[in-house]
Design goal:
heterodimer, A: mainly alpha, 9 helices, about 85% helix, B: alpha/beta, Rossmann fold, six-stranded mixed β-sheet, four-stranded antiparallel β-sheet
Chain lengths: ~260, ~270
């Protein structure tokens, strides 16, 4: 009985947690459209966030997805050469990168860089009473802090995903040219033939949703920070852990849906 | 002919109770603060004075009883009504609570930018005036982290005053400051009182500063008001608990309430 009760309580907590995320997103959406005037400074804050979240992540995302592209090509070639189907390396790399690994790796890098930073920033503001100060000045902390982050992520995550697709394919190309039978030109053509717009689109949709989830989790963890520096560390940790878990879960759901819907392609 | 009506209180609390979880921190406080008055709330750590301040500005919800600011019950006020009230009050936090990502000038400009339609040049001038009032002329572009504790407090005063509020709240304005800086802060509060006849609520455990700036004093002890009245009256009170606090006498009985013990050690420090 004890066990059943614990499972029940844990389930309830999880549902409440996701409910909290949805509430934060809903409130941000409402504030975005209803917040009176002052649009220019919202844009200014969003651009500031976008620079940190998106542009700042470019080097590391490029490097990692490039390497992942090489790795996929290597692993693929290991299997494919036994079938004498080395020419399929290009399509293997391009499809797995665009549909899956590009957005996923990007999300994990962004969780590490920005999801954690959101939680630490808002958590520290909780501890130093800056959130209370905003409230006493009649400034909604969600409007002031969260809305620009959502905006920045909604724009930058798809951009980063497209860029990571490109870098991943480039990584595969490096392998194809060095040890496969490809030239740069033939690899690009093989990639172009293998990909359909839908592959890239599914990746971009995933990236967008990942971005919103990362923002919601990071900010919510920040707001729920208790008193003291230790609590900020705890919030940052759970922001990263919960974001990764949720991103993988959502990825699973999306991939399943796309798989089931493949017939109509 | 009716007798001239007493001025309506700016802040009134009636049987105010606040609890965190199961623990009740304030046990039914009733008091009124009138326009232009400086009310100082004194009491040791754990006496509930910070909770009282947070409740008065609407950061904590009373568990029962009511708080009215300019006649509006803040527990029942809608978000919009609350915003209207909040634009009329300023709160200077103990640690300053300046937004760390913005320079000092922008911190003070923030409420003006968000709540008024003033031109940026006008706001710039206003920020300069506010900084001048607290003796921080020329510090607009410093980040809060570059300021000393006393300067951060003064910058927080400037921000609290940015919207020319009707009521100013101070949380421990002189705590953690050297005697000279603390005296400077007291002078600043006295000046504000003289120049603008603002209603002020100051929470402190510094007795000297309390008697210097107060019109009236509330002495809180473990969530109860043990004394309330004009500064002189409280100073001359013969109530044993009041005397113990004012004369800084340690509790003789072993008290397992750690917060309560700390209340006396802090007075001596």
């Amino acid at each position: 009985m004890q066990f059943v009760a614990e499972v029940g309580a844990a389930t309830e907590r999880s549902v409440a947690y996701v409910g909290g995320l949805a509430q934060l997103f809903g409130k941000s959406l409402r504030l975005l459209f209803l917040s009176p005037l002052k649009g220019s400074r919202l844009a200014q804050r969003a651009v500031h966030q976008a620079m940190a979240v998106g542009v700042g992540a470019l080097p590391i995302v490029s490097l990692i997805t490039f390497f992942v592209g090489v790795i996929i090509a290597l692993q693929g070639a290991y299997q494919l050469q036994r079938l004498g189907a080395m020419q399929l390396v290009a399509s293997l790399v391009s499809i797995s990168i665009t549909r899956e690994l590009g957005p996923l790796i990007t999300a994990i890098v962004v969780i590490g860089r920005s999801g954690s930073a959101f939680a630490a920033e808002i958590g520290t503001m909780r501890v130093t009473e800056e959130l209370d100060a905003l409230e006493t000045m009649a400034l909604d902390p969600v409007a002031f802090l969260v809305v620009p982050k959502f905006l920045a992520m909604a724009v930058m995550m798809p951009c980063l995903a497209i860029w990571s697709d490109f870098m991943g394919v480039l990584g595969g190309c490096l392998f194809g040219v060095v040890s496969g039978n490809f030239t740069f030109g033939s690899y690009v053509i093989a990639t172009r033939d293998a990909l359909v717009a839908r592959d890239i689109a599914t990746g971009i949709v995933k990236a967008l949703v990942f971005g919103l989830v990362i923002t919601a989790v990071g900010c919510q963890e920040g707001f729920s920070t208790g008193a003291g520096a230790e609590e900020v560390g705890r919030s940052t940790t759970s922001a990263v852990v919960n974001s990764i878990l949720l991103v993988i879960l959502i990825d699973l759901v999306f991939t399943t849906l796309f798989y089931l819907a493949r017939g109509s392609a | 002919m009716a007798a001239p009506a007493a001025p309506a209180p700016v802040i009134s609390a009636r049987d105010l109770r606040v609890q965190y979880g199961d623990r009740e921190v304030l046990h039914g406080l009733t008091f009124e603060i009138v326009h232009g008055e400086t009310m100082v709330v004194i009491g040791g750590s754990g006496s509930g004075k910070s909770t009282l301040l947070r409740t008065l500005v609407g950061l904590e919800k009373p568990s029962s009883g009511e708080v009215r600011i300019k006649g509006v019950d803040i527990a029942k006020a809608s978000a919009r009504e609350m915003d209207v009230i909040r634009k009329k009050i300023g709160l200077a936090f103990q640690g300053g609570a300046l937004i760390g990502s913005l320079p000092v000038g922008e911190n003070i400009a923030l409420p003006l930018l968000e709540h008024t339609t003033l031109k940026p040049t006008t706001i710039e001038v206003m920020v300069r005036i506010k900084l001048e009032q607290v003796g921080l002329t020329g510090f607009e572009n410093y980040s809060p982290a570059q300021l000393s504790g006393g300067m951060r407090k003064r910058a927080a005063f400037a921000r609290a005053m940015a919207m020319d509020p009707e009521i100013l709240f101070f949380d421990e304005p002189s705590a953690g400051l050297d005697p000279i800086t603390a005296a400077g802060i007291d002078d600043l509060i006295l000046e504000l009182k003289k120049a603008y006849s603002m209603t002020m609520v100051v929470v402190t455990h510094e007795l000297a500063s309390a008697f210097l700036i107060a019109d009236r004093i509330i002495l809180l002890d473990r969530g109860n008001i043990v004394a309330m009245g004009p500064a002189q009256e409280v100073r001359d009170s013969t109530h044993p608990r009041v005397r113990q606090f004012l004369d800084r006498v340690a509790d003789t009985a072993q008290d397992d309430d750690v917060d309560h013990m700390r209340m006396y050690t802090e007075g001596i420090k």
